[in-house]
Amino acid sequence: MLLKRFTLATALTVCAFASTVPNDKRDALTATVTLSQDKGEPKQLVCGMLYGVPVKPNQIPDKFYTGIKFNYLRAGGAQNSAPGWLGGGEDKYRPRFNSALSNYKTARKYGARFVLLIHDLWGADSLQASDAAFPGDGGDWSNYEEFLDTVVTDIKKAGMTTGLDIDIWNEPDNGPFWGRSQDQFLELWGRTYARLRGAFGTNVSLVGPSTVSFPTTDNDWWTRYLSFISTNSSVPDIYSWHLLLDPAVDPQSSSETFNNVLRPQHNLPARPIQINEFALREEQQPAGSVWYISRFERNNIQGLRANYGFYGQLYDFQAGLLGKPHADDDQYNAEGGGYYANGEWQLLAYYANMQGRRVGTTGTSDGKFEVFATKDGSNKFKIIAGARRTMGTWKIQVKGLSSLKLSKSGSIRVQQLRFDFDGYYGKVGTPVDLGTKTYKYSNDVVTFQVTPSTINTAYAFELVA
């Protein structure tokens, strides 16, 4: 691997503090950290996932869950050999529910919340036959109502209500998951919301619409949906959508459009937002993780990482964070062990253990480079930094050093760490220690320059003294 041939001196050259950078100016290529701004406790908002957890209990060792403070799982028995309710009623549904129940138990073992996917229990997991039935076909809802009754009964019988969210339907604006009209979906929404709210009250959170598209002012699908839930009194407890299609869109811009424009237009209440599938496959690496972490944490949005596996691999590897022997060859064993962390897991583990308080941050105005930062009770800061699918040189301006009980001018020592990546199944150890260096600062500000050594590489900076 190329990064292993870097010497410490070389690494410090390719990603270094530049003491000559002026401390009092910010341009389009400067990200900021404002230590005097308290943004609350870190919430590990990017430590959830879509599937990625084996049905077999305890297959992945505990340390890989606890190490990243795993806190959200979204599943529903997809891609099971049993086709779901649409394939023949309860007998074809039961294996999928049992799969979901196993995943629920794993999530709860670690204190994570669980999002149950109704569409996967039904069998609309994108692999169903082209002539498969959808709820309400021909105006007949009786089969779907029987299905919902069964789901409600099974949830109660299994004692699943603690820590449970229910996603009313996945990607209803995407043909493979909902091959019917929006009108038919809206009727499904109203019926499902009423049945589940009646069964569980507010003890179970209802999530939606979990669209493949994101809310914009010219998205007619979203306009009709918001109008419907407003007049139908079926507002979800958690608003949700996905960020998978347009690399120019992000959690920050889509949530701002939703909260500042669309939601007020329809007189809808403020509720939490969950982006329950995010990141292109090529963004699932340390630098991409930092970019998303900063945006989710800054806007207090829960994020669940997307999953690009199929069949057995869908239920494995923590949705792309782990590897194991034969992970990507014809000897792959869905129930095999021998797990190890990849580079992105190492980044998430570091992020999950950034303690203390979040502080104010801004990314570069070109939208390409981001930072997330905390400070702890011992007046030390930690910063992670990374770019989104690009190379370049950026600056990080750290302001408010006096809030750490430092003088407004002087010098500080900073330790630098590098997070490497060797592919999705490549084993990577803890971050590489690039050493410490002393930097002079003035006007309560220190500015340094970062040039990532690869498109996947992320960095951490820690105040030593």
Examine the coordinates and then state which fold CATH places here, giving the name of the CATH topology of the largest domain.
TIM Barrel
Low-confidence stretches: 1-24
What string gives the helices and strands in order?
Answer: HEEHEHEHHEHEHEHEHEEEHEEEEEEEE
Total domain count:
2
Largest sheet: 9 strands, mixed
Number of strands: 19
* CATH uppermost class of the largest domain: Alpha Beta
Number of helices: 10
What does this structure look like?
With 465 residues, the chain is an alpha/beta fold. The chain folds into two domains: 2-42 and 357-463, Sandwich (Immunoglobulin-like), CATH 2.60.40.1180; 48-351, Alpha-Beta Barrel (TIM Barrel), CATH 3.20.20.80. The chain contains ten helices and 19 strands.
Topology:
Elements: H1 8-14, E1 30-38, E2 48-50, H2 62-66, E3 72-75, H3 90-109, E4 113-117, H4 118-122, H5 142-158, E5 164-167, H6 182-200, E6 205-211, H7 220-232, E7 238-243, H8 251-265, E8 273-278, H9 286-299, E9 302-305, E10 322-323, E11 340-341, H10 343-352, E12 357-362, E13 369-375, E14 381-387, E15 394-399, E16 410-419, E17 432-441, E18 445-450, E19 458-463
Parallel strand pairs: 1-15, 2-3, 2-9, 3-4, 4-5, 5-6, 6-7, 7-8, 8-9
Antiparallel strand pairs: 1-12, 10-11, 12-13, 13-14, 14-19, 15-18, 16-17, 16-19
Helix pairs in contact: 9-10
Short note summarizing the structure:
It is built from 10 helices and 19 strands.
State the main characteristics.
single chain, 465 residues, alpha/beta, Immunoglobulin-like, TIM Barrel, 2 domains, 19 strands, disordered N terminus, Glycoside hydrolase family 39
